[in-house]
Specification:
Length: about 270
């Protein structure tokens, strides 16, 4: 039986779109029959936030992929939650594994960003992750609890936060996390919330999974007790995103045949 928490799917376009490609994805998502019981969001590069918001139907929200910890100032290349809201968008992704590992953002900076985003009134997808080394050294619980503890210290309104767990060792590596491995990690996170924040927060906070989610595995994963949705990478650029949004629906609205011309576009996805 599925949890009462509303299913949540965010497709993160990363640095893989231009206006033409956004138009193609919008065409795909607008034509599809999307499950109304799923909250659907797309993560868009900052330079296209306004354009994506204008093109997408209102029931699909738009998120920035990052923001800084203050409202304004001499911080070249950064954007603030206020700027995101001024573009008509209501979500931001913070602490994404690529920000943590490629750009070396530490826990305390991510926590400061989350605190300011909450203060500004924007909704947050707050990410935690484990690496291959973490798993091989059996440090999954230690690593996740440390990241979550840092995030929790900055969160004042849990109703406006979604926690995203990513198994980096299962992202674009050809190795898929098993449902049991995903459930184990999500259960750890919910256990920590229950014992360190409150039973209410543990029961109501949505926890989603990232790690090579696709048409092939989304329905099986969607049955997991502690899973409330997905943070989707490369599949967000393909027709797979429709199936993933509909993973808990009684039908799967696959549009590959309808959008055969989209195949060229999706083949470029990273």
């Amino acid at each position: 039986m599925f949890s009462p928490r509303k299913f949540f799917v965010i497709g993160n376009w990363k640095m893989n779109v231009d206006r033409s490609r956004i138009d193609s994805i919008v065409k795909l998502m607008t034509a599809a029959s999307l499950d109304p019981n799923t909250e659907a969001v797309v993560g868009c590069p900052s330079c296209y936030l306004s354009y994506a918001r204008q093109q997408l139907p209102p029931q699909i929200a738009v998120a920035a992929q990052n923001c800084y910890k203050v409202e304004r100032g001499n911080f070249s290349g950064e954007i603030s939650p206020a700027m995101i809201q001024d573009c008509g968008c209501e979500w931001v992704i913070l602490g994404h594994p690529e920000r943590r590992t490629i750009f070396n953002e530490p826990d305390h900076l991510i926590s400061q960003k989350v605190a300011h985003a909450q203060q500004a009134g924007i909704k947050v997808v707050a990410c935690v992750c484990e690496t291959k080394e973490d798993r091989e050294s059996q440090r999954t619980e230690e690593v996740l609890y440390g990241q979550l503890e840092s995030l929790a210290a900055s969160i004042s309104d849990w109703s406006r936060v979604v926690i995203a767990f990513e198994a980096l060792w299962a992202s674009g590596t050809g190795i898929l996390a098993t449902p049991a491995q995903v459930q184990e990690a999500l259960s750890m996170l919910r256990h920590w919330l229950r014992h360190n924040v409150s039973h209410h927060v543990a029961n109501t906070t949505r926890i989603i999974y990232a790690g090579s989610v696709s048409t092939d595995n989304c329905q099986e994963l969607a049955k997991l007790k502690d899973l409330d949705g997905f943070l989707v990478g490369s599949a967000a650029l393909k027709p797979d995103i429709v199936d993933i949004i509909n993973a808990r629906s009684s039908h799967v609205a696959r549009l590959v045949d309808i959008f055969s011309s989209y195949e060229r576009l999706s083949s470029r996805a990273i």
